[in-house]
Give the backbone structure.
Amino acid sequence: MPEKRTVLITGASSGIGQASALLLAQRDFSVFGTTRNPSGVEPISGVEVLPLDVCSEESVNTCVDTVLKRAGRLDTLVNNAGYGLTGVVEEVTIEEAKAQFETNFFGVVRMVKRVLPIMRRQGSGQIINISSGLGLTALAFTGFYSSSKFALEGYTEALRHEVSPFQIRVSLVEPGFVQTKFRDNIQYARYPISDYDPWRQRAAVGPAARGPASPARPCCWDAVCSAAVCR
């Protein structure tokens, strides 16, 4: 009987990460999902939830070491952890911009640096990075979120070429607007500039202006699962 493949999904407490974890568990993967606070997450059927802060190298090492101890290998890494930052470029502080990149971009870099030696030793592996449609075309009020995803796109393309000789596959998934809790967790620039308010209102940016999201579609997590099951 073939050995179960092991997948580690960051940001699996809700949304695309959670849905992908559930689908892969149903397809007989050994699934580990992560969140910053496992005690605040409802159990996910077939998924072992581990604590992880992608902004901490120590946390990344501990998480991956736990997966190896329990599963003995790591076949697929899905980098899904991230959040949105909304605000015009001028009003976002340097600290807010750095924090956005620390999670959305350098969090991925930390995870990849930790798992690549494992996958090279195995002679195989799969890395799936969750980007965004805003990593292809930026919109107003999403400058730093889009920038973090543009950076992820370039990083992923280079990585794909570099690790292909080791039979490690690298993929990007670029979702559009999907009905998940991502919208509820968006952060807004701390010091908005009122001169931009007329355009902000037209763009319906901000907690008060936020309307209902489009109905959720399974294509995003289906894309993650398709990449993961493809050998």
